[in-house]
Amino acid sequence: MTAIGIHDIELASTHHVxxxxxxxxxxxxxxxxxxIGLGQDEFSVPAPDEDxxxxxxxxxxxxxDRNGLEGVRTLLFATESGIDHSKAAGVFVHQLLGLPxxxxxxxxxxxxxxxxxxxxxxxxIVQRNPRERVLVIASDVARYALDSPGEPTQGAGAAAILIAxxxxxxxxxxxxxxxxxNVDDFWRPNDxxxxxxxxxxxxxxxxxxxTGAWDDxxxxxxxxxxxxxxxxxxxxxxxxxxxxxxxxxxxxGVELGDAGLAEGAVYNRRLGNAYTASLYAGVASVLDHxxxxxxxxxxxxxxxxGSVSEFLTGVVQTGAESRTDHFxxxxxxxxxxxxxxxxxxxxxxxxxxxxxxxxxxxxAPFRFAGIEGxxxxxxxx
Length: 381
Ligand code: CAA
Description:
Number of strands: 17
Helix content: 25-40%
Number of helices: 12
Bound molecules: acetoacetyl-coenzyme A
CATH class of the largest domain: Alpha Beta
Number of domains: 2
Shape: globular
Radius of gyration: 19 Å
Strand order of the largest sheet: 5-4-6-7-1-8-13-12-11
Oligomer: single chain
C-alpha cells in the first residue's frame, strides 16, 4: 500500500500580539492564571488588513516555494471563521498564489476538526492517484467576547499542509478512531462574530470525545497506547493537552507523564487558539523541537466542538530530521498591542452597506485590501 501523509507543513500568524501579562494587569487577574492555569503566554491579533485568507496564503506560499506546484490539483481550506457564506476562502488563496485553473477549491467546516477532515479527504484523493498532491490550509481567528472566560484563549494562525505519497515528514496510518455527538458546548451563530461557549461543558465534551475516539481506534485495529511514542492534542489552550494526557493515562491505565507536552506547546502558548490550525501547530512544534523522532509513532487527537473528533496515528519520516524552529522568530516579530489598542481592534466591525479600504498595516506577503461592491479584495503587498 502507498504510504501517504504530511510531506510539508508551515505555519503563519498575524501582525500583532497581545501579552497576557498586560491583559492580566488591566483586569486584575493573577497572571499565573493565564500562564499556568491556562498554559498561555500571548495571543495573536489580526491587523485590519489580515484575516484567514492572508494567513493561509502566507503559510501556503512557503510550502509551494519549497515543493513546487507539480501534482497539486486540489486546495482544501478548513476554517470556522468563514468570510463568506457561499464562496470558499481558498478561492482567494488560489488567486493570490497564482494557481492554475486546473485546481479544485473547496472549504470544509466542523469547528476545530475541519483541518483533520480536509487531511482525510486529501489522503483519499492521493490514494486514488498517488501522482497528485493536495494543499490543505487550516486557518482561523478565535474571537470571544471581551471580559468573557474565553477572552484569554483567543488567537489566530494558519497551517499549510502538503499531503502526498511517500511523505517526507509523517506517514498517516490507515486505522483511525472517530467520535461524533450533537452537543452545545461551543458554536457561532451566523449573525455573531464571537463564539458562544459553555466552557466547563466544552472541557468535559472534549475529554469524553477523546476516550470515545480512542475506543474506536482500538476497535479499528489501531496501535496500543504503549506503541505510541508522542501524543499531540488539539490545544484550545495548552493546559487542555495536559488534561487530555492525564485522562488518557487514567483511561488506559498506562503512565504517560507529561512526555512531549512542552515540545508540543511551544508555538501554541504564543499563538493562542488557532482552532483548525491548533493541532497542526502542535505537530510542527513537536517536529521542530524534538530530535530522534524518525520511525517513532505520533498519536494525534483532533477535536471540533459541536462535536466531531478523531484519533489518528502517524509514523515520523526521515525528512523531519532537517526541521528546525524558524517560526519562533516569526512570532517574535509580531508587533505588541496595548490593551486599549487590542480592544479597539476587537470592536472593529466591517460595514455591510459601504465600500471599505483597509489601512496598510501587515508586513505579510498578502493583504486584505477591502470591500468593493460587497466583494472582498485581496492583493500582494
Ligand atoms: N495560578 C495558577 N492557576 C490558576 C490560577 C492561578 N492564580 N487561578 C486559576 N487557575 C487555574 C484553575 O485552577 C483552572 O485550572 P484547572 O483547569 O486545572 O482546574 C484554570 O486556571 C482555569 O481557571 P477556571 O477554572 O477558573 O476557568 P475559567 O473560568 O477561566 O475558564 C475556560 C476556563 C473554560 C477554558 C475558558 O477559558 C473558556 O471558556 N475557553 C473557551 C472554550 C475552550 O477553550 N474550551 C476547551 C475545550 S473546547 C475545544 O477544544 C474547542 C475549541 O477550540 C474552543
